[in-house]
């Protein structure tokens, strides 16, 4: 979940230090803090600068694609970034997860389902992967399957994960769709 304001106040010197550093790893820690605080615009700005200096880093490309993939004006750019990350590192589950969320935003939920279904059979799948599968299934009008995928994601700890503002909106949308 997301830390309280009191925790942020106590740890602010750490985030300030991370932001001021020339080390991209420390900068990334600052970006994660921005996401957890709900300040995704700031995280996108920082991450865009970091990626510009490190264009062959699959993790950075993935994180930027993940944050920008739901923005209509940047979805195609996000798809380019995640495809480059996959080219650099192969079809890693976390990269396919990001790609699937972008495909859903681009109106291609069936393609997203094809990427995610194999990941669903892992011994302990990431709850965020199951969540994205549920979103893609719901967008494809596979409501019963979406309900099952979402229930499994919740059982595996989805609500304990740090979710972006957009993911929180998708959670609410799914729960509303399931209650109809």
Explain what you see.
This protein has 180 residues and is mainly α. 75% of the residues lie in helices and 0% in strands. The longest helix has 16 residues, at 5-20. The protein is globular, with a radius of gyration of 16 Å. The mean pLDDT is 85.
In a nutshell, what does this entry contain?
This protein is mainly alpha-helical. It has helices spanning 5-20, 24-37, 40-53, 58-68, 75-89, 93-105, 109-120, 127-139, 143-155, 165-178. α3 (40-53) runs antiparallel to α4, α4 runs parallel beside α6 (93-105) and α5 (75-89) runs antiparallel to α6 (93-105).
| Low-pLDDT segments | none
Structural class: mainly alpha
Largest sheet: none
Helix tally?
10
What is the succession of H and E elements?
A: HHHHHHHHHH
General form: globular
Q: Measure the end-to-end span.
A: 27 Å
Let me know the average pLDDT. 85
How helix-rich are the residues, as a percent range? over 70%
Strands, total number: 0
Q: How much of the polypeptide forms β-strand, as a percent range?
A: under 5%
* Rg calc: 16 Å
Keywords:
single chain, 180 residues, mainly alpha
List the helices and strands and how they pair.
Blueprint: H1 5-20, H2 24-37, H3 40-53, H4 58-68, H5 75-89, H6 93-105, H7 109-120, H8 127-139, H9 143-155, H10 165-178
């Amino acid at each position: 979940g997301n830390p309280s304001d009191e925790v942020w106040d106590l740890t602010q010197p750490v985030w300030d230090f991370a932001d001021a550093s020339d080390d991209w790893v420390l900068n990334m820690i600052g970006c994660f803090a921005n996401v957890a605080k709900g300040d995704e615009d700031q995280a996108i700005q920082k991450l865009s600068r970091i990626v510009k200096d490190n264009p062959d880093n699959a993790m950075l490309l993935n994180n930027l694609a993940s944050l920008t993939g739901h923005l209509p004006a940047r979805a195609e750019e996000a798809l380019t970034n995640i495809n480059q990350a996959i080219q650099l590192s192969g079809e890693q589950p976390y990269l396919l997860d990001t790609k699937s969320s972008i495909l859903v935003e681009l109106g291609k939920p069936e393609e997203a389902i094809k990427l995610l279904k194999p990941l669903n059979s892992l011994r302990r799948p990431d709850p965020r992967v199951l969540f994205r599968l549920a979103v893609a299934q719901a967008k494809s009008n596979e409501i019963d399957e979406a309900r099952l995928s979402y229930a499994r994601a919740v059982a595996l700890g989805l609500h304990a994960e740090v979710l972006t503002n957009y993911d929180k909106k998708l959670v609410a949308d799914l729960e509303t769709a399931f209650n109809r």
